[in-house]
Amino acid sequence: MLCSLCGYNFDEEKSKSGCNLCFLKKDCGLVKCPNCGIEIPKDSLIKTMPLSELPLNKEAEVVCIKTKNKSMVQKIIVMGALPKTKVVLLQKYPSYILQIQKSKFALDEAIASCIVVKFFI
Questions:
Q1: Domain definitions of the chain by residue range
Q2: What backbone torsions phi and psi does residue 65 show, to the nearest 5 degrees?
Q3: Does domain 48-120 have CATH number 2.30.30.90?
Q4: 3-state secondary structure of 116
Q5: pLDDT per position in the chain (121 positions), as tens?
Q6: φ and ψ at 58, to 5 degrees?
Q7: Which of 14, 23, 39, 118 has the fewest CB neighbours in a 10 Å radius?
Q8: Do residues 62 and 111 make contact, with C-beta atoms less than 8 angstroms apart?
């Protein structure tokens, strides 16, 4: 999960440690960021993941590119999959089909796994 206030990326299980002292326990509908302590409604949480794991037809935003392979970075830049770009994953098999605005691109799994995206749950 990605905290909408401080930008800290955390596992939902880590946030449950703050719920032990609360009288509401699990049923309050909030998740507490372990970094800044803000309580965020679960339905407004931002989840980050590799593009290859994004559910089909969900709009997401590119967060970063995680690779040191220069040729792979160049391919991703040429497609326009830069941070803050809105993308939609249309297909996963036999190859990944990514839509950026009105353009569609075929990607292999290695490239799709390097692109980290976020979307609202």
A1: 12-44, 48-120
A2: -115, 120
A3: yes
A4: strand
A5: 777 677 777 777 766 666 667 766 656 777 778 888 877 776 666 778 999 999 999 999 998 898 889 999 999 999 999 988 999 999 999 999 999 999 999 999 999 999 999 886 6
A6: -100, 130
A7: 23
A8: no
